[in-house]
Predict the 3D structure of the following.
Amino acid sequence: MTDQHVDETHDVANDTRTRPVRDRFDSPPRGRRVGAHRLVIRPRRFWQYLVAALVGVAVLTAAGIFAVQNIGSSVTEIFDGESPAAPVEQVQAEVDPEATVAVLNGTTEEGLQDAVAEAIAEGEWGTIGFTDIAATDDVAISAVFFATEADEPAALGLAKQLGGVSTYQSDDYAKYGVQLVVLLGADYAGPGAE
């Protein structure tokens, strides 16, 4: 009986029926679905990642700008031990009838400088020193120039009366010996332009 039992065991060991049998779950077909639950692999959408990244960069940039503007000055104040600078006071426009004025015509319109000088004298917006033709006749923007900060209120007042022309501080016209220089350009539409 022992010999027979050994033979049966030996036969069982050599028998192919005792080996594990492969079934359809051991090698699933290749495809989009994988795993026991057959999870579907979603296609990658590059544009979604790109849009999300761009939105993130925009939000972080806006937050950074906000932080620098609102927090930066107080941090500087803490580390420097100084208070922030006082706000700059704006110069108020004042018409000064005693301010000496030169009127230069930078356009091709003849006599414009005299007409504007007459309007300034009649309105008592300044005292006319002289009128002349500018070095060039293709000036585009009209302006009132002043040399010193003390003359800025008078320049602003005269510029306002002339229809809101620009004002600039410049030493370029100091040689004329007047406080204010009105340079008429192609855009001039104030008093005397009629």
Notes: The radius of gyration is 45 Å.
